[in-house]
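User: Just a sanity check before I run the rest of the batch. Below are the structure tokens for the first item. I only need the designed sequence back.
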């Protein structure tokens, strides 16, 4: 007979996966606070935003607001984590031309450890490759 601890772990994991598979990222409801990585590029904000919307696997665009230039990307749940949402905000850079991109991370359910930080860096690198932004220009904000 399975122990109570094993049943509890199974219920917690099952609940987490049920939440993760049912959630979709929405611009209006996704929190924009917390840790983020900032990227800078010389590209026009509208062109940069369009490039982000064309990002490929493993990311998908759950929601986007073209007027505010905010997108919510996501990764699917896997056996190792519940998946993540990545709110992306594209701002015009000041005082020069170009764009400033804020890449944030939120878990689809809950997480422990450094998985969210690694997922954030992975998403920033994928966007960096789209924009060909040099790694030296990344600025991580607490």
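Assistant: Here's the designed sequence for the first item:
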């Amino acid at each position: 007979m399975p122990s109570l601890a094993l049943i509890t772990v199974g219920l917690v994991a099952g609940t987490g996966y049920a939440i993760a598979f049912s959630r979709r990222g929405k611009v209006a409801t996704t929190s924009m606070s917390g840790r983020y990585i900032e990227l800078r590029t010389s590209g026009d904000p509208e062109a940069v935003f369009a490039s982000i919307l064309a990002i490929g696997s493993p990311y998908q665009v759950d929601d986007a607001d073209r007027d505010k230039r905010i997108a919510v990307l996501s990764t699917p749940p896997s056996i190792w984590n519940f998946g993540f949402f990545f709110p992306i905000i594209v701002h015009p850079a000041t005082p020069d031309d170009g764009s400033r991109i804020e890449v944030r991370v939120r878990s689809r359910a809950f997480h422990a450890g450094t998985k969210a930080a690694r997922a954030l860096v992975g998403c920033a690198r994928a966007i960096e490759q789209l924009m060909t932004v040099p790694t030296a220009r990344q600025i991580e904000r607490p």
